[in-house]
Amino acid sequence: MKTAQRPYLQKTPLRRVTQVDIANELGVAVSTVQRALANSPRISQKTKRKVFHLAEKYGYKPNFIANAFARRKTNMIGTILGKYAINHMEVFAAIEQEANHRGYNVLLSITDFDEQSEHQKVMQMIDHSVDGLIIASANPRWSTYKELVESGLPIVFVTPFVDIPFAPAITYDREYANRIATEHLISLGHKLIAFVDTDSICFTDQSRSIRGYFDSMEQAGLSIDEKYIYYVKPSPNVLPGENRLIIYENGLKAGEYLFSLNPRPTGIVVEGDALAAGLIGSARKFNIRIPEDVSIVSSKAGRLLSQLTPRVTGVKEPHFQMGRLLAKRVIDIIENADSPVEQMSILKGELIIRESTRRVEQRREKREERKKN
Amino acid sequence: MKTAQRPYLQKTPLRRVTQVDIANELGVAVSTVQRALANSPRISQKTKRKVFHLAEKYGYKPNFIANAFARRKTNMIGTILGKYAINHMEVFAAIEQEANHRGYNVLLSITDFDEQSEHQKVMQMIDHSVDGLIIASANPRWSTYKELVESGLPIVFVTPFVDIPFAPAITYDREYANRIATEHLISLGHKLIAFVDTDSICFTDQSRSIRGYFDSMEQAGLSIDEKYIYYVKPSPNVLPGENRLIIYENGLKAGEYLFSLNPRPTGIVVEGDALAAGLIGSARKFNIRIPEDVSIVSSKAGRLLSQLTPRVTGVKEPHFQMGRLLAKRVIDIIENADSPVEQMSILKGELIIRESTRRVEQRREKREERKKN
DNA sequence: CTGTTAGCGCCTTCAG
DNA sequence: CTGAAGGCGCTAACAG
């Protein structure tokens, strides 16, 4: 009949009631209370009722920390996002939603988008005993991560890379995006289509990504001229929350280059909202109208595009879907470490047609052609 | 000499080393190891060295969960943000930075911006034993929160309300923002200045907020005409991550109204990035040039403004400062529950002049005046 | 300066 | 169907 003592009871007046309290009051064993609360079939309905009643009465809440301690499982998953991802908080919202749905909570950490701070945050998460990790890494220390993954820690990556040999990852299909963006312009009669992309060590699949553009052009029998391809250079000074590539200023520069070309492109495929915004800003300076003079389509569109004037056509990156999938993946791995896990998911975006693209004007088209010949 | 047994040692091969392991190997008490690790002055250098050495050798990491369990303190603070706050992730980044700096971690939860989901998320956080809470609430269930605060849980709010009687809060000074935005236009010679604001149960201090506009106008001897004041109505259907008031479409509507007025305002003070963006979109439809025909200034500016064309002048909401202050506040309360806590901080923004505002053209100004007389 | 001891709240195994 | 007991890793009070 002897049960655990609670010598410090009076010291902590705000203490929540525990299983022990209920057990004591009911003159029953703690394990009985526990099983009742877990609705175990091994407990009689009568006992369960009594336990539930008391639990309700005293507002019993399981102690998350004690539970985590005893089970050696926190039901928390850590998420590491680079600062630049601030623009993609839908991803996080989706992660959280899916995770909550499956009984997990999410610890978020924003990194400075550099190796050191990323590594530090990851370690912090691990110290906090997260059950799994979602990492949006741009400067990955693969050696470290490889070790972690091999040590059994469930990690899912979201990266612009196409191949991560040792861990599951999710990525956005940039090749596909460039293809349908380009095809969209072609379908509107554009022939002189420029291409603006980022160029960085981060994006090693860049050569593959541009294939979407090349292929579409070739298939349509259109010639490709290198001078219509512009690679954004990383900008040295950026505000917090921006990355060095996809920022307004770089769009401005791209515009300055492209709008000075002769003949001028009639359509532009550009990566990302901010670059598109910069292009629009640049067009104004050149007194170029969009879409009357130039059509613009973004191959990696977020929420900004629909707030620009004109609203920009683009291939929408499926942030929400990404988030849900990320959460699903880690949790699947956590809960069944041996289950076969598809290594890489390549998510496709969807073309949303807005006001920045339109059919090439006959006049213009003819004029351009005459110039060529 | 007898120390704790580890019967399950072999069952968990990936187990991290514990203080007990070190104590055993050193033939010393656990508490000694503990004090050594805490660098207590009560331990001899020699012992400390031995302990540190072993800890290093075995890669000892304190077990966060066990620690939290024993101390009944998690060093985690929960943050509840409404979906709309997705645009303000700088706030979160700042919270995290400050919190980490002081040895805390941050649990984030995104709510659907309604009472129910907010309440649920708060409770979830509490179940997870956070030490304190930061709540960006727009539909606060004050009665619930009052209870929580009175029960001793450290909570800091960030709200558009000016008064929360029972808890510390941080808010953005909208009256001040409207004042300097209006004054900016006045200083550029504008006389016919329209005012676009939100109108909702959320924003009960609205009447106070508009005073910034009224006062400036009166001080400048300018007349105020109600028809130049436009209140945004909540939009029924919004995308995730948007709130019902400050969205592009509502800016469009505001523009449709204002740009049809006769005489047309030469300057507009508008709340928020999205409304400003909508105003610009609307201006295009009316073939109105910004800033040549109409100047626009936002009284609650975020990061979007500088990506619009033209880049919009605005009073920048100090997101980063807010975040740091929020974290500082909760932690101060957590660590010294009795310390006097300033109840409300009202943060002021800073005017950033960009391209959407300019001096009224003489011609135009004269014409408007003639019309009036 | 160091050791002993008794929990924190919950879970799990083993024994009825 | 129920009970008893031990342990998770760390902390803190007390005793030298």
Write the layout of secondary structure elements.
The structure is a homodimer of 373-residue chains.
Chain A: H1 19-26, H2 30-37, H3 45-58, H4 64-71, E1 76-82, H5 89-101, E2 105-111, H6 115-127, E3 132-136, H7 142-150, E4 155-158, E5 169-172, H8 174-187, E6 193-198, H9 206-209, H10 211-219, E7 229-232, H11 248-258, E8 267-270, H12 273-285, E9 295-301, E10 313-316, H13 319-335, E11 344-347, E12 350-352, H14 362-372
Helix pairs in contact in A: 1-2, 1-3, 2-3, 5-13, 8-10, 11-12
Chain A binds a DNA duplex (16 and 16 nucleotides) through helix 2 and helix 4.
Most extensive chain interface and residues per partner: A-B, 53 and 53 residues
Mean pLDDT of chain A: 84
Given helix and strand content, the structural type of chain A is alpha/beta
Low-confidence stretches of chain A: 1-13
Helices and strands of chain A, in N-to-C order? HHHHEHEHEHEEHEHHEHEHEEHEEH
Q: Based on DSSP secondary structure assignment, what is the total number of beta strands of chain A?
A: 12
- What share of the residues of chain A lie within helices? 40-55%
Can you tell me the CATH topology of the largest domain in chain A?
Rossmann fold
Second rung of CATH, namely the architecture of the largest domain in chain A:
3-Layer(aba) Sandwich
As for the number of domains of chain A, it is 3
Distance between the termini of chain A: 101 Å
Largest sheet: spatial strand order of chain A = 2-1-3-4-5-11
* Biggest sheet features of chain A: 6 strands, parallel
Percent of sequence in beta strands of chain A:
15-25%
